[in-house]
């Protein structure tokens, strides 16, 4: 019956000119329900192998079926789809096609890129190539709904279903069915500050959650009814950062710790404090409970130490990390390893350490990630004791605590730092749950890898530009990983070995020709450098005159008939360097500059335009230090670039409030109303010419690039990406390059 029904529905789909099904004209019932019928009929693989069906199918009914793919082609298509679930949910078919094509390029599957681009609109921006260093085939689901950072995460069972409980900066507690990915019940509200941590337990047979917040309160929630139990528990006098549950003297209690230098114990049955608080704990960021020799003990990780506290005597037993110096701990958990109790910590140095309680020493240490280790959770996987750790670089890693090696592939795909991790089993399969910014991801550890992604930068790409090297077009990128890369736009998209003789992140970046040779001028924290792209080496020593001051900007302009590089520090020291010779020609002091600055020449004068998150746009005469103009109001500015519109000098700024502004220079008068369209913070802006029009290109945390007609202040195009855009550039011949996370993509309209 279901087989016949599936066949009839498929045959009813109109045909395109090439004889293939035209899913754009399929009946809405087929798009919404065909996957369900095909799964029952045993015909799902044929459907999932058709990438055009995935472009048009209803997201909500398609998503649960993606994990049922069996054939290689169906599994490849669904792996590409699952890798960008968090973006696809609310997109129309044209935008979904664009994102899927980018993901196919990241997986490095040319035939899939060609198939998706082949049905795109004629003048649509189509991905030519992309790197896939921040890509994983293990993504099972992406859960969205919170509107702020999700720092609190725990797993439990509610009505027999595996459930994740989350708390957010948006002050709500939410539940998620881990099998379907659907939200469970309604959001639970009551906290008046960001929720910092959550712990789950059972009270009188009911599943409950305990949350702690910056509002200095502890709350108890009935997960069966999605309602608060009793009044908030109060007593802390500063933000509460951590909570854990245990049984103490026959009572179910919660232990909380925060930045008021105390630990407190709460009877969950009565909502009352149990005994006096433990004092002298320092600024507690994290805690875990364990029983040692029959005594309940709390392990605390603070901003400077890892310590053990006896809950019976309310006294400190010992400092675990004695001799380790001052360490800022982000997370701690406890487990047993080879029959002995151990603590596992994560800290701001990016280390995950295993501590022996009895001997007070480190048993093992896991490193290899940039930035801090934010979270850690323990589990038994395939009979082995493992720790799951989340990192600032947006990844999660599973570590075998006995073999002291990583288990499986790196779980990568978040565009923001991982804030919390948890482990669960779904239908007998191990999964990891991670949170980053406002999104949860569920990772299926049993999934195999697909494609052959091109790997490049290991941290976020901050700058991108175009050049021509040896007669061939290339894309040049700069990153937080302190390297610059040159990407060959040939049939095989690849980058050169990283140019990594730098001491800090590479940003900003400008490419141009100098005496017939392609060069890149880029800024670092401590100055600027000029590199010969054909030779792959520096042309001059670094442009740095004040080694103890942080660089604020680097710009290249023509001044008095010569090309110069202008560098500046946040303290207001501005230097002018001859681009050809590398000589320092002039020094100026202009007063403090903003977080983002660009320079240009107006009427023969060198001027600097500067913005910050909380200050007005300011324009300064670099020679005299005199203010030439200031915007009438402050804006939460994120980026600025300067250029010309109808031969008039202008600045274009973008902001946290998702708007783009045009300003007339040097007076800082707004040109028309702000340009709107982005739905989140706008991170980057650049100016270019497209089809004879002056345009601005902006990249946003809303996973898009927008191209704006500056004359009419309207949107010309929107390019949808699998992640937030941190840099964008348009070449003279119409190639668009943009960065999202660690990766870079190249688009064409041809």
Explain what this protein looks like in three dimensions:
- It is a single chain.
- The protein is mainly beta and 750 residues long.
- The chain is 10% helix and 50% strand.
- It contains nine helices and 58 strands.
- The strands form 14 sheets. Strands 7, 8, 9, 10 and 11 form a five-stranded antiparallel sheet that branches.
Over all CA atoms, what is the radius of gyration? 28 Å
Number of strands: 58
Q: Helix count?
A: 9
Largest sheet: 5 strands, antiparallel
Low-confidence stretches: none
Average residue-wise pLDDT: 93
Query: By helix and strand content, what is the structural category?
Result: mainly beta
Helix content: 10-25%
- Spatial shape: globular
DSSP strand content: over 45%
WD repeats: 143-186, 188-231, 233-276, 454-490, 565-587, 675-718
Pfam families: WD40
Protein name: WD40 repeat protein
InterPro entries: Quinoprotein_ADH-like_sf, WD40/YVTN_repeat-like_dom_sf, WD40_PAC1, WD40_repeat_CS, WD40_repeat_dom_sf, WD40_rpt
């Amino acid at each position: 019956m279901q087989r016949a029904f599936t066949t009839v529905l498929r045959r009813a789909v109109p045909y395109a000119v090439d004889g293939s099904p035209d899913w754009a004209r399929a009946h809405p019932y087929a798009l919404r329900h065909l996957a369900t019928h095909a799964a029952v009929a045993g015909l799902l693989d044929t459907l999932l192998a058709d990438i055009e069906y995935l472009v048009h199918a209803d997201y909500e009914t398609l998503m649960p079926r993606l994990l049922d793919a069996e054939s290689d082609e169906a599994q490849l298509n669904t792996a590409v789809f699952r890798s960008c679930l968090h973006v696809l949910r609310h997109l129309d078919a044209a935008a979904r096609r664009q994102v899927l094509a980018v993901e196919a390029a990241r997986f490095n599957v040319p035939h899939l890129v060609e198939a998706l681009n082949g049905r795109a609109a004629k003048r649509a921006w189509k991905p030519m190539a992309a790197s896939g260093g921040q890509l994983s085939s293990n993504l099972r689901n992406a859960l969205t709904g919170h509107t702020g950072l999700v720092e609190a995460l725990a797993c439990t069972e509610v009505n027999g279903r595996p459930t994740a409980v989350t708390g957010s900066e948006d002050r709500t507690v939410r539940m998620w069915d881990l099998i379907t990915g659907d939200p469970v019940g309604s959001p639970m509200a009551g906290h008046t500050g960001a929720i910092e941590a959550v712990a789950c337990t059972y009270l009188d047979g009911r599943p409950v959650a305990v949350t702690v917040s910056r509002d200095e309160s502890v709350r108890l929630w009935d997960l069966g009814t999605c309602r608060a139990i009793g009044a908030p528990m109060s007593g802390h006098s500063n933000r509460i950062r951590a909570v854990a549950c245990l049984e103490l003297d026959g009572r179910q209690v919660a232990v909380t710790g925060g930045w008021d230098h105390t630990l407190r114990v709460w009877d969950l049955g009565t909502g009352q404090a149990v005994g006096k608080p433990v004092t002298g704990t320092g600024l507690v960021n994290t805690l875990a409970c364990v029983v040692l020799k029959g005594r309940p003990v709390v392990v605390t990780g603070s901003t400077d130490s890892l310590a053990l506290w006896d809950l019976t005597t309310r006294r400190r037993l010992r400092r675990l990390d004695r001799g380790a110096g001052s360490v800022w701990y982000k997370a701690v958990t406890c487990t047993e390893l080879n029959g002995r109790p151990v603590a596992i910590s994560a800290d701001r140095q990016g280390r995950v350490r295993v501590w022996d309680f009895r001997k007070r020493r480190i048993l093992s240490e896991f490193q290899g990630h940039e930035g801090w280790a934010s979270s850690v959770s323990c589990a038994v996987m395939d009979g082995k004791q493992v720790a799951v750790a989340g990192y600032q670089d947006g990844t999660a890693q599973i570590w075998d605590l006995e073999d002291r090696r990583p288990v499986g592939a790196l779980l990568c795909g978040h565009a923001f730092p991982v804030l919390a991790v948890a482990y669960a089993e779904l239908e007998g399969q191990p999964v990891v749950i991670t949170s980053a910014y406002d999104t949860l991801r569920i990772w299926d550890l049993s999934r195999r890898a697909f494609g052959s992604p091109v790997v490049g930068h290991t941290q976020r790409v901050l700058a991108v530009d175009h050049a021509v090297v040896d007669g061939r077009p290339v894309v040049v990128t700069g990153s937080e990983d302190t390297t610059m890369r040159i990407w060959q736009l040939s049939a095989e998209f690849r980058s050169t070995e990283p140019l990594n003789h730098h001491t800090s992140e590479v940003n900003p970046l400008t490419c141009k020709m100098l005496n017939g040779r392609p060069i890149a001028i880029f800024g670092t924290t401590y100055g600027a450098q000029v590199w010969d792209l054909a030779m792959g080496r520096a042309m001059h020593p670094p442009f740095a005159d004040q080694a103890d001051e942080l660089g604020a900007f680097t710009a290249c302009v023509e001044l008095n008939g010569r090309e110069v590089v202008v560098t500046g520090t946040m303290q207001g020291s501005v230097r002018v360097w001859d681009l050809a010779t590398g000589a320092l020609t002039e020094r100026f002091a202009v007063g403090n500059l903003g977080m983002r600055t660009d320079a240009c020449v107006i009427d023969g004068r060198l001027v600097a335009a500067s913005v910050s998150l909380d200050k007005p746009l300011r324009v300064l005469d670099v020679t005299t230090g005199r203010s030439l103009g200031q915007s009438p109001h402050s804006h939460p500015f994120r980026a600025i670039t300067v250029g010309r519109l109808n031969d008039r000098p202008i600045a274009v700024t973008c902001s946290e409030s998702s708007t783009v502004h045009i300003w007339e220079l040097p007076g800082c008068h707004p040109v028309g109303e702000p340009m709107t369209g982005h739905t989140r913070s706008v991170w980057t802006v650049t100016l270019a010419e497209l089809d004879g029009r002056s345009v601005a290109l902006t990249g946003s945390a809303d996973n898009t690039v927008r191209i704006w007609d500056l004359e009419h202040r309207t949107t010309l195009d929107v390019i949808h990406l699998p992640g937030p855009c941190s840099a964008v550039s348009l070449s003279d011949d119409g190639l668009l390059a943009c960065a999202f996370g660690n990766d870079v993509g190249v688009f064409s309209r041809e």
